[in-house]
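Need tokens for this chain, all 369 residues.
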Amino acid sequence: MKSLATLGNELYSGRTSIPFIARRRIWYTIAAVVIAVSAILVVRPGLNPGIDFKGGTEVTVTGVPSPSEGPANDVLSAQGLSASSAVTTMGSSSVRVQTNELSKAASDSLSAALAQAYGVDAANVSATTIGPTWSSDVTGKAVRGLVIFFLLVGALIWAYFRTWKMAAAALLALTHDIIITVGVYAASRFEVTPATIIGVLTILGYSLYDTVVVFDKIRENTEAFEAQTRSTYAELANLAVNQTFIRSINTSVVGVLPVASLLVVGAFILGAGTLRDIALTLFIGMIAGTLSSVFLATPLLVDMRSRERGVREQAERVAVARGRRLEQAADDDEREALAAAPAASPLVPGHHLGVSAQPKNLAKRRRRS
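Here are the structure tokens for all 369 residues:
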């Protein structure tokens, strides 16, 4: 079995090639199915917005020896608030109660009842009320932040690569990452909090970084590609993905492992809180971002570029040149070598271009003519 280092070297040199571009319809189908499932989850059961986005009253009880949801549920039932409330244990000594917006008197009554139910001092109970105006303002700012991020990212990629098609492909991949992350968040029933928005913006930056690395390699491989008849644009783009594939995996693993640790600590040890909210977003988003940069961004770019006249004409010249080289092959061994040669590989000084590209023996050439 090949080691990861050996596989990486073979992928970079072109001796081994994974057909990312040739099988792009498979990746598109898988992405479409996953996006559809995520969209359904967003509708039903739907997102679970936190108090910062929907408004309401939050009461936190600290210093509880053995926190459980039972006493809080009993208090809420006694005060007629069960239908609109949620109780969550936080860590090893806290309980959080969220309900609809309450008046000052109702909030004080609920706090006093919770303190008595859990046997703690009144100082250990804190209540916070967030009105609808503030929560709608937070929602609006989150949406504006996301829109501004997309606009700035699109403009930056357009300016850096000097083509809008790379910007469009990158933004489509980012949209894929957002939809999947939101769908998983809806399925998990985790609350959507400001920490969730921070996590979304963070994973967008992570996914963008991975995509830009691949695109930068594509630009390097396809520089003046129209002047040669050895490889098409799609083949050179596929080589770029292969060359960065191991790096993408390594970067993803290094990033996901500590985030997975944060998720375990936040969800199962400390309970609900900011750490859990941001960790789930990062965990799903990092994985989706890595996959989209490899399986979606580059295939989308190739599809957009393949409609260009120059790219089509260059692909036709490559096909004609390959057919000519096969016809000029001296024997079956040379034809087999040409057929087995990689469609695209790095061009370096002294690089072997194949048997047909080497000087022919003059006597053999005369006999053939």
